[in-house]
Amino acid sequence: MQSISQRTSLIKAEAKRLGFLSCGVSKAGFLEEEAPRLEKWLNQNRHGEMQYMENHFDKRLDPTKLVEGSKSVISLLLNYFPSEQQNPDSYKISKYAYGTDYHFVIKDKLKSLLHFIQEKIGEVHGRAFVDSAPVLDKAWAAKSGLGWIGKHSNLLTQQVGSFYFIAELIVDLELEYDTPVTDHCGTCTACIDACPTQAIVEPYVVDGSKCISYFTIELKNEIPGEFQGKFDEWMFGCDVCQDVCPWNRFSKPHREPLFDPNPELLSFTKKDWEEITEDVFKKVFQKSAVKRTKLSGLKRNIDFLKD
């Protein structure tokens, strides 16, 4: 029978072997500090038309309501920083969407990790989450000591910046808990100053309904005309606040072949994007998160950039 400390070390070592950047653990329970923040954010309509953000308020703040008997939240980071970037004469796609949809890649790794835990530790029940259920990923990752939430509201880590995915395993197993790290944003306001649509309304608060990622991915209706000319050529997502962050000078390319992009995606010019057909769209984005917008959504975004 392993000690709590041995169990925790076993899990962290396996997470590393599976290719995760880092792994931290926190005690499952009510997120006291997050509750008033989330409530205020929703009341101010910062979520725009993302109605799903209003659902499951209690589950969002307490994983024990999501996974019965849960004792620990295991938070994991997976790097997606690419070694190559798009042709400079191109409409831009957020780096996270270059390769295979992260939901599939990470879900497989999480299932392997849960299987490993059950094999090595015993009967453990748990669920894997990748940004697809009411779990406050960034809050849990911060609580687990994997980084701090920056002024652009993304998780930041001193050694590697912020170009990574966050995922969780919520399990009914007691583990050794990590402690949060301190905030290292200091007086820097690079992300606030650079945001093309002024979506970072105050340090640590992003108005989701003004964010380019929201307009180009989540918004199903027409993009409001008042934002014309402010998209800085982004047609799917936006990386501006991360690109300008001084901590991202430490980003290193990922080693996950599934995140490598289709070469055409990197070489396409604006003209290629403007003339893209359904067949080419399917080929280039075969397993990509960009499929969420469908070709019609991508064309709407490109038309908005052209006007």
From TrEMBL:
Binding site residues for cob(II)alamin: 60, 131, 155, 166, 213, 238-239
Top EC class for this record: oxidoreductase
Lipid metabolism keyword on record: no
Active site: 131 (proton donor)
Pathway this chain belongs to: tRNA modification; tRNA-queuosine biosynthesis
Catalytic activity: epoxyqueuosine(34) in tRNA + AH2 = queuosine(34) in tRNA + A + H2O
Listed PANTHER family: EPOXYQUEUOSINE REDUCTASE
Residue span, 4Fe-4S ferredoxin-type domain: 173-205
Protein name (record): Epoxyqueuosine reductase
GO biological process: tRNA queuosine(34) biosynthetic process
